Known about the structure:
The chain is of the alpha/beta class. It contains eleven helices and seven strands. The chain has a seven-stranded parallel beta sheet, with helices on both faces. Helix 1 (17-28) links the parallel strand 1 (8-11) and strand 2. Helix 1 crosses helix 8, helix 4 (109-136) runs parallel beside helix 5 and helix 10 crosses helix 11 (299-310).
Amino acid sequence: MKGLSDKRVLVTGSSYGIGRAVAVRFAAEGGHIAINHRDSASEAAITESLVREAQPNKSRKVTIVQADVSRDEQVERLMRTVIEELGGLDVLVNNSGIQIPAPSHEASLEDFDRVLGVNLRGAYMCARAAIRHFMEREGEGVILNMSSVHEIIPKPGYIGYSVSKGGLQNLTRTLALEYADVGIRVNGIGPGATVTPINRSWIHDPEKRAAIERRIPMRRSCEPEEVAALCAFLASEEATYIIGTLAPDDIHRRRSDDFRGVQRELDDLISTPVLLPSVMSPLSSFVTEEGRRCQRIGTLQIRGVIREMEGGNPLPPQRLF
């Protein structure tokens, strides 16, 4: 990707999964890499080995920094160490994330706070520290927030995770608008079904995996390397006019002519449907008719249609595509 060579990149939560793939991809693009973990030193060492192997120029720097991103003093130490070790920071990838399953009425406040502390508060604290550093050198820098399809689609039984990803979506938009004029670009990525350890409950169960992949247009799950490729693009000079994007990895998106089926599935997941028929019926018709010429409608576009429908004003197709 254009403009990534020699960039200094911090990937939080990069000891395995998507974070590991992102660190390796930026290393392959010629970057200096900071690997972060909370309590998985052995896995972080594996990531370091893969990063060094991927680097085309062996003089590029690699460092491992242990820190819990939910703790403000540890975030300050993390950013200070990364800047000292790499000589600065150009790209922050907020990838750290956890989930704790439990029925919402049984979930403890401790677990709820823990998930939000890592997924949302931690992302904000890291972004805040990165922005301060970027502005000290008169701006310019990239922040990528690793969100989830569940920033939009509810995930019953994972209340902390759903809430944190919804908040991360708005964090991304707010920072993007606030700092665009000083050259700081902020974007988000919302992966769907991805083969990572956090999804171990279904990736090794053939029946569950098949049930999930049947609903994916490409009939397969996403690989971490595919998410990493999207990160590389958004951080590169090929994407210098993109801000505030909440980019889905489109392989998890359903066909637009199956939107009514998506609504039915959501209604099955939630005992009381939360999608207003007065809003969704015209939206479904719009997606069905216009979807034949444009197979996908992005997250921001769909939400824009809903806002227009709520106001009773149909949105002309040319304003969408």
